[in-house]
Amino acid sequence: MKVNLDQDKCVASGQCVVAAMEVFDQRDEDGIAVLLNDSPPADQADDVRHAATVCPALAITVEE
Amino acid sequence: MARAAGCPFDPPPEARAGQQEDPLRRVRLWDGSTPWLVTGHAEQRTLLADPRVSSDPDRPGYPSSVPRDPGGSSISFILMDDPEHARLRRMVTAPFAIKRVRALRPAVQKIVDGLIDDMLAGPKPADLVEAFALPVPSLVICELLGVPYTDHGFFQSKSSTIIKRDAAPEQRFAASQALSAYLDALMGDKLDRPGDDLLSGLAERVRAGELTRGEAAQMGVLLLIAGHETTANMIALGTLALLEHPDQLAILRETDDRAVVASAVEELLRYLNITHNGRRRVALEDIAIAGRLIRAGEGVILANDVGNRDPRVFPEPDRLDLRRDARRHVAFGFGVHQCLGQPLARLELEVVYGTLYRRVPTLRLATELERVPFKHDGSVYGVYELPVTW
């Protein structure tokens, strides 16, 4: 799995951090998401897909 | 549109009509205009995330729920489009980041415990709204923003006027002017004597020339209203819904598992969806969706309460089921305007739902359901009062 995050689209909702804390974090200064791991292991794949689903800004895309 | 008698937790039947075969249809508003009503969950998400729809109520075709205020409304960035919306919103996103909000849990727990102590020490029956549901989020948002809680009588009454659908436009305008003046004065204090609260952070940006004092005050108004009205209604209405579904209430009363409580919060958000006026937008370009064509300049109302009862996403949608996975709900909206304060709302609701029924296991309604005054006239649904005993 390959994860992409478009920080220009991100609205800092933090939904991705709730869904997959090992893969996403937020910048201290403005809460914009940061990608910690663009190739997460299989056991985190469902959480990452869920993060992409609930991201209100459609800023996360996943290539399987 | 009115809710069905005896079904105070369900969206109006008229709003739900045709959701399956026709997720977009025309409706007629109070002013004779005929915007689109979008009831499908998927279609709502698609449109709310589409930059070709605008949130600006000054654009022709915007489907206003009430006559416009004589002075024009100005509740900061929720009624703006990008890039102006993003510029302002990004100035207040940091304090709502997940880890910063989660760090507030002990403070929120202390507030909740203290209010329950006071309620239990006071007379029975008690009004849960006044004793608990309104003070919890008011105390939390005051702390976060740096607003003196001693002024709560003032800002709570102005807020409730602003969000009352049947208040006269002049009344709403006067209430909004009063709150603006109050926040402007407070901004003056923060400029003189900054603390470590959110409003002081905005004052710092005013000093740096990134923001005008007026913009900062309007953001303060928005955060203050949004920060207590919505959560207060979720607490009181959620408690009523649970009291009416004792098997579901038992799940919360009998668990100390945070994951169970967090899941229950999502389901109550989905089921109650208190922002029952819909999200309102106007199309900037022609948009083809679900076999329909929304023309540029046409209004669009996204009925998120109905979307959250879409059986294509939530099987048996009218059943309150705290154990279901409800995380795809649109109670906080979707797209760039999705609720800024949702991490804080979730935290408050997790602490409240995870504490109140365990500490007061005999909590029950002190009146009949038929006598509970529901906020049919508010842009945020809930109850005006909730007499409870234990």
Task: Set out the fold topology.
The complex is a heterodimer of chains A (64) and B (390).
Chain A: E1 2-5, H1 15-19, E2 24-26, E3 33-35, H2 45-54, E4 60-63
Antiparallel strand pairs in A: 1-4, 2-3
Chain B: H1 13-16, E1 24-26, E2 36-38, H2 41-48, E3 53-54, H3 84-89, H4 98-102, H5 105-121, E4 126-127, H6 128-133, H7 135-145, H8 152-162, H9 169-192, H10 198-207, H11 213-243, H12 246-253, H13 258-272, E5 279-283, E6 287-289, E7 292-294, E8 299-302, H14 304-307, H15 342-359, E9 364-365, E10 387-389
Parallel strand pairs in B: 2-8
Antiparallel strand pairs in B: 1-2, 3-5, 4-10, 5-8, 6-7, 9-10
Helix pairs in contact in B: 5-7, 5-15, 7-11, 8-9, 8-11, 9-10, 9-11, 11-15, 13-15
Averaged pLDDT of chain B? 94
Average of pLDDT of chain A:
96
Biggest chain pair interface: A-B, 18 and 21 residues
Secondary structure class of chain A reads: alpha+beta
Strand adjacency order, main sheet of chain A: 1-4
- How much of the sequence lies in strands of chain B comes to 5-15%
Radius of gyration from the alpha-carbon trace of chain A, in angstroms:
10 Å
Q: What level of helicity do the residues of chain B show?
A: 40-55%
Q: What about the largest sheet of chain B? A: 5 strands, mixed
Query: H/E order of the elements of chain B?
Result: HEEHEHHHEHHHHHHHHEEEEHHEE
Question: What is the oligomer described by this structure?
Answer: heterodimer
CATH third-tier fold name of chain B: Cytochrome p450
CATH topology of chain A: Alpha-Beta Plaits
Segments of chain A where pLDDT lies below 50 for 5+ residues?
Answer: none
Shape of chain A: globular
Radius of gyration of chain B, in Å, reads: 21 Å
One letter per element, helices H and strands E, the order of chain A comes to EHEEHE
CA(first)-CA(last) distance of chain A = 5 Å
Function (chain A): Ferredoxins are iron-sulfur proteins that transfer electrons in a wide variety of metabolic reactions.
Protein name (chain A): Ferredoxin
Keywords (chain A): 3Fe-4S, Electron transport, Iron, Iron-sulfur, Metal-binding, Transport
Cofactor (chain A): [3Fe-4S] cluster
